[in-house]
């Protein structure tokens, strides 16, 4: 029976445990390039025991960013910064992963703490956003949207392939395509955002065409020995949008195009969502397990898995294969070591580099002298 600290092998890559740092946009890139900040952030999480470490979503084109301070991989000059990140992650014992994405009609944004509103195309830090149809998202995203032509769609597929080549050159060993959270891939999948009448719109199969062709383009250049995964917007929580049954079918189709693992998340193609269980512990686990059972493919989820006992339980019960942690990874760079203590692991410091762990193992002292909080004894809420 696996547990949270069991190794996990996918294709030719083995993770030291089932804990992944989920991509989190940090708004620290310069001209799309990663900096010392990213080396520090990713290196510390790898040193802290995470098995798989993602930087933020990496844009395949300049207009695929959330804002001008987000990272990109559309130019060879960006490889050097990314390579520094992968080098420190590997040196600390983790596997470096990259999430390729395009924000579509949710791009051209101010930073969240500056209002997160969309900037107009003529603003110095803004641009013309693009999507499958000329339908603004609404709310704070209210500027006109350019409907992609078929030629532009083909160019974007080539951009995905070119980005994958650069990711390989930078040393990444795991590639995820971000088709969730209302970004470009998610908007092609959702009838809320995609009202095309050509081969990329209408039926479910047509709305999946963008995904299939993008995956085919990446699979053609990404080595077969390395995992290719996708974060899929699996439910819009809106009666007119993507339903979870659609996602189950989609994963089955995409498995036939080389998908190795499904990372199930939300569609977020509208603010008009109903009954989203945002405050429920592990609320995506049961849904992901359905995909795992019916499609016979490894699955991962994030969303409210930051309690060690919950994260461990969903792995032990073989409901999912990997736990993705976003905010918990930002809050605690040593979350895996903390979790190991909470779960009475026989050697929590085995999760971190040997030279680091030596000091923590070899200088015993009274309880609390290493700065760790007392092990929790509170009741753990049940998962769905």
CATH superfamily: Aldolase class I
Order of SSEs = EEEHEEHEEEHEHHHEHEHEHEHHH
Major sheet: arrangement of strands: 3-4-6-9-10-11-12-13
Radius of gyration: 20 Å
The domain tally reads: 1
CATH topology: TIM Barrel
Structural account:
With 384 residues, the chain is of the alpha/beta class. The chain has one domain: Alpha-Beta Barrel (TIM Barrel). The protein is built from twelve helices and 13 strands. An eight-stranded parallel barrel has the order 3-4-6-9-10-11-12-13, surrounded by six helices. It has a two-stranded antiparallel ribbon with strand order 1-2.
Descriptive labels:
384 residues; alpha/beta; TIM Barrel; eight-stranded parallel β-barrel; two-stranded antiparallel sheet; 12 helices; 13% strand; globular
Short description:
The protein is α/β, with parallel strands linked by helices.
Write the layout of secondary structure elements.
Elements: E1 8-10, E2 13-15, E3 19-21, H1 36-47, E4 52-53, E5 57-59, H2 79-91, E6 95-101, E7 130-131, E8 146-147, H3 150-170, E9 174-179, H4 184-189, H5 204-207, H6 209-219, E10 228-233, H7 244-255, E11 261-265, H8 285-295, E12 299-301, H9 308-316, E13 322-325, H10 327-331, H11 335-342, H12 354-362
Helix pairs in contact: 1-2, 2-3, 3-6, 7-8
């Amino acid at each position: 029976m696996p547990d949270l600290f069991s190794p996990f092998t996918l294709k030719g890559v083995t993770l030291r445990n089932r804990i992944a740092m989920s991509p989190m946009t940090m708004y620290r890139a310069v001209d799309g390039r990663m900096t010392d900040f990213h080396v520090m952030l990713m290196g510390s999480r790898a040193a802290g025991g995470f098995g798989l470490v993602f930087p933020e979503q990496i844009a395949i084109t300049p207009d695929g960013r959330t804002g001008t301070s987000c990272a990109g991989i559309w130019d060879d000059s960006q490889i050097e910064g990314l390579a520094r990140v992968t080098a420190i992650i590997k040196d600390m014992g983790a596997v470096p992963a990259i999430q390729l994405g395009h924000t579509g009609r949710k791009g051209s944004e101010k930073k969240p703490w500056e209002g997160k509103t969309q900037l107009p195309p003529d603003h110095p830090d803004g641009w013309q956003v693009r999507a499958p149809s000329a339908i603004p998202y609404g709310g704070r995203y209210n500027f006109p949207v350019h409907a992609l032509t078929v030629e532009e769609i083909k160019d974007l597929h080539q951009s995905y392939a070119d980005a994958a080549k650069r990711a390989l050159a930078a040393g990444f060993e795991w590639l995820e395509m971000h088709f969730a959270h209302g970004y470009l891939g998610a908007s092609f999948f959702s009838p809320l955002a995609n009202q095309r009448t050509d081969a990329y719109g209408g039926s479910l199969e047509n709305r999946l065409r963008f995904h299939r062709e993008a995956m085919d383009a990446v699979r053609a250049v990404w080595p077969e020995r390395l995992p290719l995964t996708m974060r899929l917007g699996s439910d819009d929580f809106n009666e007119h949008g993507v339903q979870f049954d659609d996602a189950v079918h989609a994963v089955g189709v995409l498995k036939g195009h080389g998908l190795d693992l499904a990372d199930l998340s939300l569609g977020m193609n509208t603010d008009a969502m109903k009954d989203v269980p945002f405050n429920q512990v592990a609320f995506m686990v049961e849904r992901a397990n359905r995909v795992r059972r019916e499609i016979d493919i490894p699955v991962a989820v994030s969303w409210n898995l930051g309690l060690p006992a919950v994260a461990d339980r969903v792995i032990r019960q073989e409901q999912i294969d990997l736990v993705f942690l976003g905010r918990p990874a930002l809050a605690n760079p040593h979350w895996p070591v903390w979790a190991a203590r909470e779960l009475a692991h026989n050697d929590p410091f085995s999760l971190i580099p040997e030279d680091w762990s030596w000091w923590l193992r070899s200088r015993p002292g009274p309880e609390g002298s290493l700065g760790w909080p007392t092990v929790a004894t509170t009741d753990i809420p049940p998962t769905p």
